Amino acid sequence: MNLCSTRNKSLRVNFSEAVASGLASDGGLFYPIDSIDLRRVLESDPPSFQDFAFTVLSELLAGECTSEDLEAIAHEAFYFSPDMFTIHERISLLDLSTGKTAAFKDYGASFLASWMSRFQSDPVVILTATSGDTGSAVAQAFYNKRNISVVVLFPEGKISQIQERQMTTLGDNIDCLAVNGSFDDCQAMVKACFADDQLRDSIHISSANSINIGRLIPQSLYYLYARKRIEGDIRFCVPSGNFGNMVAAMFARQWGMDCDPFLAACNENDTIPSFLSSDTYAAKPSIETYATAMDVGNPSNFERFMFLCEQRSISPQKLVSAISVTDDQILETIRRYYEMYGQFVCPHTATGLYYAEQELDKGLEGHVVCVSTAHAGKFRETVHKACGHTPDLPPQLQGLEDKPTHKKNIDANIEQFKQHLRKRYG
């Protein structure tokens, strides 16, 4: 797989190089430029998600490593698989909560950890900003991996207790920093490090956020896998914050997945819906909502999205539509799905279900597959507030409250963060 920077098409690397560096040297994001057609692969029927992942990755990453290595990575990374079930005749849920941290980001993080631990020979420090699920998925996936340290920045007091404990109860090679600020502050601190040539010369840093293409390629797999299981016209409705999961879906469509334009369900952080309605992009300070993992005012992957539209000579509005879902609408949707179907849904999944219902009520044809991004048990307080009932924790999250935590509080100060990195890893 050949990739270029979104800011310089002549800056090209292979997949291994893109994963190792995380961000392009010019500050751009890596983008796959090969013409890839997976329609033949999609007609096959491997017996498991692991086998399906290996089959698809063999096409995408041919020449990057041996087939034996790739098969081992697919089976090591994807010891869990997506589930899909129909809520009612027009809406299905693509359940991605079956991994180690009960969120969709386990797919990308687990693949990235398996890939890097196999091929990364020199010590590397992975910098990760998180609004909740990314940090826990990355921390769990990379815990105790050889030659790899992980630094996670999260906004203090603005993620769920369970999300925080999934990161801070590990220790060892997992360094958790609670930032007195927002997710956008955390993201800006990480990006500033990648833009600092002196820092990059002294410390080998990489990323496990969705700015790393090694996160997005494996996330494309569950869209391809789900499409095989539903006949007829479909649309994917994707709860969207940093827009990485949406771009992964767009990659899948570019490679031959047959589906109609996408639906992006955002919370009250309406940067993307505002752009699509006005053609003017205006980053905003993030707003705290019940869908905390989507509290992003300046989505990193917007740059990839626009590059994709440019490469395909397509207007953004023809590829995706979006709305902003309020906190009250999130709570109401959680309540209705519990009362009508006995189904607990997380606040992020609720944004997708709300948008899907709105579009179907307006006459949208075909079937909508809503991406269920996390287990409702990770957001017990919000779910209880909505419907008066508390979902159980999934088995993989039980017992966290009994473990000691390890974190350091820092200000939203870029130089303070760089000083921490130099002192600990330089």
Report on the architecture of this protein:
The protein has helices spanning 15-21, 39-42, 49-60, 67-77, 105-119, 133-142, 161-168, 183-194, 197-202, 213-227, 244-254, 271-278, 302-312, 316-319, 327-341, 347-361, 380-387, 414-425; strands at residues 2-5, 8-14, 30-32, 83-88, 91-95, 124-129, 148-155, 174-180, 205-207, 234-239, 262-266, 320-324, 367-372, 408-411. It has 426 residues and is of the alpha/beta class. It has a domain at 81-103 and 214-396: Rossmann fold (3-Layer(aba) Sandwich). The strands form three sheets. The chain has a six-stranded mixed beta sheet with strand order 4-5-13-10-11-12. It has a five-stranded parallel beta sheet with strand order 9-6-7-8-14, sandwiched between helices.
List the helices and strands and how they pair.
Blueprint: E1 2-5, E2 8-14, H1 15-21, E3 30-32, H2 39-42, H3 49-60, H4 67-77, E4 83-88, E5 91-95, H5 105-119, E6 124-129, H6 133-142, E7 148-155, H7 161-168, E8 174-180, H8 183-194, H9 197-202, E9 205-207, H10 213-227, E10 234-239, H11 244-254, E11 262-266, H12 271-278, H13 302-312, H14 316-319, E12 320-324, H15 327-341, H16 347-361, E13 367-372, H17 380-387, E14 408-411, H18 414-425
Parallel strand pairs: 5-13, 6-7, 6-9, 7-8, 8-14, 10-11, 10-13, 11-12
Antiparallel strand pairs: 1-2, 1-3, 4-5
Helix pairs in contact: 3-4, 4-5, 5-6, 5-10, 6-7, 10-11, 15-16, 15-17
